[in-house]
Amino acid sequence: MNQLQESLSGICLKDRMMEKILIAPSFSAGLQIVESVVREGIHCLNLRIKTIRSLAHDLIAIDLASEAISLLPDTAMLLFVEDIFN
Question: What residue spans of 1-86 are helical by DSSP H?
């Protein structure tokens, strides 16, 4: 088990019922990390996987909703940036 898996195992064993957030580069990478810990027999209760983008969205979601602001889809964002550079 590598250092990341050992640290996650320790946190999951110490704080079984508390909510835990694993920040990973992608959801699939986070799932792979959690699966490797679970294969070692450690139960990861209340563990959520987040990316930097999803964590940032969660933090501002209430403010966006209260101001009736929505995010641009990725395709629209790329077109917008391309227009700026042109």
Answer: 3-14, 27-39, 52-66, 74-85
| Lookup: tokens for 73 | 């889809």
CA distance 83 to 86: 5
**Cα–Cα distance for residue pair 5/47, rounded to 1 Å:** 14
Write the pLDDT tens digit of every residue in 10-66.
999 898 889 999 999 999 999 999 999 999 999 889 999 999 989 888 888 888 888
Q: What local confidence, expressed as pLDDT, does residue 1 receive? A: 67
For the entire predicted model, the pTM comes to: 0.68
- Token look-up 């999803």 returns 54
Phi, psi torsion values for 35, nearest 5 degrees: -60, -40
Residue 28 to residues 32, 52, 74, 79, Cα–Cα distance (Å): 6, 14, 19, 27
3-class SS at 55?
helix
